[in-house]
Design brief:
D-amino Acid Aminotransferase, Chain A, domain 2; D-amino Acid Aminotransferase, Chain A, domain 1; binds pyridoxal-5'-phosphate; 31% helix; 10-stranded mixed β-sheet; alpha+beta
C-alpha cells in the first residue's frame, strides 16, 4: 500500500511519524473518511467542507487548499488502484515538545491511506443488525471530526461485547447518533433524524439520505429523537460512509417493528445504490 505523508507518496512500511507528534501524544487532530466508487469520490466537496470546518474549529491552519486536497487524493488513488475503496485522511497539529498549549512554528502532519471498501454482508439485508443504547459520555463538540475517539471506542466495544453491531448514544433523554454512525428512525411512516448541532457529527451519508428523501418525495423530518421515539420506532437505521444504510432490527435485545429490515429502509437503500451506480458510471 502506498500512503501519503507530508507531501510524499511512500510504501506504508517506510512512512514514519515522530513519537512527539501531537496526534500520538494528545489525539490533537482531525480526520475524514471518503468513499470512492469506480474511481470517483462520493461527495468529495462536502467531505472537504467538513474537513475545513473541523480544522478551523480546532485552530489548525489548513495545510493544503482545495486544489491541493483534490490533487493529493487523485494521485493517492492512482497509486492504489482498485474498484470500491475509501480514503482515510488525517491532519494533526504536528511534532513538538509535549505541552498542552499550541506550539509555535509547527507545521501540521498530513497523512492519508486507501483502504478496501467492503459493502455490508448481504445477510444484513435480510436480518438487519443489533444495536444497544448507552449513555453518550463524549465531550460537547461532537460536530468536530476529531481523531480523539476514546469514548466512541469504549461504546463500540461495549456494544460488540453485548453481541451488537453498534451503540446508540443517549444524551439528556435523546438519542444523538451511533458510536460511528448517524441515526434515523421511522415512526408513522415518517423518517426522523436528529437535527445537526454540537451533539452529533454532521454525517455526509446522513445529508445524502435527507436529500434523497426530498428528491423522491419520502417524508422526512429533522427533529430530536427521544428515548420513547426510539423504542416505539417501526424502523431504525444507522448511516455512515463505510456502512451505507444499516437496518437495526434488534434494540437492546427487543425486535424493532416486526424484527426485519423495513419497507422504508428498502426504498431508501434502492435510491442510495442508484446514486452510487450513477457515480460509478460518471
Ligand atoms: N457519527 C460519527 C460519530 C462518526 O464517526 C461517523 C463516521 O465515522 C458518522 C456519524 C457518519 O458520518 P459519515 O456519513 O460522514 O461517514
Amino acid at each position: 500500500m502506498t500512503v501519503y505523508l507530508n507531501g510524499e507518496y511512500l510504501p506504508e512500511s517506510e512512512a514514519r511519524v515522530s513519537v512527539l507528534d501531537r496526534g500520538f501524544l494528545f489525539g490533537d487532530g482531525v480526520y475524514e473518511v471518503v468513499p470512492v466508487y469506480g474511481g470517483r469520490c462520493l461527495r468529495l466537496e462536502e467531505h472537504l467542507d467538513r474537513l475545513e470546518r473541523s480544522l478551523a474549529a480546532v485552530r489548525i491552519e489548513p495545510p493544503l487548499d482545495r486544489a491541493g486536497w483534490r490533487d493529493m487524493l487523485t494521485r493517492l488513488l492512482e497509486h492504489n488502484p482498485g474498484e470500491d475503496r475509501s480514503v482515510y485522511l488525517q491532519v494533526t497539529r504536528g511534532v513538538a515538545r509535549r505541552d498542552h498549549a499550541f506550539p509555535a512554528d509547527t507545521s501540521p502532519t498530513v497523512f492519508a491511506m486507501v483502504n478496501a471498501l467492503t459493502p455490508p454482508d448481504p445477510a444484513v439485508r435480510e436480518t438487519g443488525v443489533a444495536a444497544v443504547t448507552m449513555p453518550d459520555t463524549r465531550w460537547s463538540r461532537c460536530d468536530i471530526k476529531a481523531i480523539t475517539l476514546l469514548a466512541n471506542i469504549l461504546a463500540r466495544q461495549q456494544a460488540v461485547e453485548a453481541g451488537a453491531t453498534e451503540a446508540i448514544l443517549m444524551r439528556g433523554g435523546r438519542a444523538t447518533e451511533g458510536a460511528a454512525s448517524n441515526l434515523f428512525v421511522v415512526g408513522d411512516g415518517v423518517i426522523v433524524t436528529p437535527p445537526k448541532d454540537q451533539s452529533l457529527l454532521p454525517g455526509i451519508t446522513r445529508d445524502l439520505v435527507v436529500e434523497l428523501a426530498a428528491d423522491h418525495g419520502i417524508p422526512l423530518m429533522e427533529a430530536p429523537v427521544t428515548e420513547a421515539d426510539l423504542r416505539a420506532a417501526e424502523e431504525i437505521w444507522l448511516t455512515s460512509s463505510t456502512k451505507e444504510i444499516l437496518p437495526v432490527t434488534r434494540l437492546d435485545g427487543v425486535p424493532v417493528g416486526d424484527g426485519r429490515p423495513g419497507p422504508v429502509w428498502a426504498r431508501m437503500m434502492k435510491h442510495y445504490q442508484t446514486y452510487k451506480q450513477q457515480l460509478r458510471e460518471g
